[in-house]
Queue: 3 jobs
Job 1
Amino acid sequence: MKLRPLGEQVVVQKIKPSPTTSGGIHVPDSAADKEDGAYEAVVLSVGSKVDEAVGLKAADVVLVAMYSGSRVNIGGEDIIIVSVDDIMAVVLEGKLR
């Protein structure tokens, strides 16, 4: 299902962290759920009032402030609709974890 967010809203999908670290250590689900102040997400779509200067587009990987936005399940997929103000940065290279 495709969504077109209104105004300055952005539809994102949280990127699930890998269950193992780069050093090969397995991270249990209970520890993986404890996140810092942000999480990585992929942009699915942006609202019409998202400023061109912001430069967000579908498929961008972004850092989103923890506990922001509205979480919904549509067609079996968990998505989050956040305000553009809750997006802290665009990830250009690498991964957060």
Job 2
Amino acid sequence: MSELHQHVSLDSLQHALERAFGGRLGGILGPVIGGMLLGIGLPPRDVLLFASGPALVTAALVIWLGFVSRGALARSSTPARSLD
């Protein structure tokens, strides 16, 4: 097996493990945290609003990153001017 193939295989394995661990961790902690919030007396509507916070922040950051990267691409695609 070539060295490149080994790196690609290890990289793919690492990403698969990260996704699996994140899914398991969220699957375990989500109900625990939701139960704790319900246990302290928050109504279910507020628990759902609380849970949507990270998704809204992530969506805003992705949109912001899209604008920033488009600006960087536009600046890099302009031809360089000569000093003559």
Job 3
Amino acid sequence: MPRLSSATQTYAARRRGRLGRMGTAPGQVLLRCLAVNTAAKIPSPPTRPHEDECCRRGCDPCIFDYYESALDRWYERVRKLGGDPDAILRQMSPPAP
């Protein structure tokens, strides 16, 4: 049986849902660390709830309180891995028109 190239293996893994873009596992972003010139896997930030997901009844905690808490934990985790959370968020946000 012929050996498959690494590109073919990566494509097959991506089709099976085991790899995301850039060869990372789903839910992770590949970040190139400038200081060390190695790639560190950084988790994706939490998804902000849509405005319509809030019931606007003054719940405590609100769905946005949970989001802020998750975002704080994500910031801490990225910093521990040596990343810059603000730079990652800027890279992920769509360009302004």
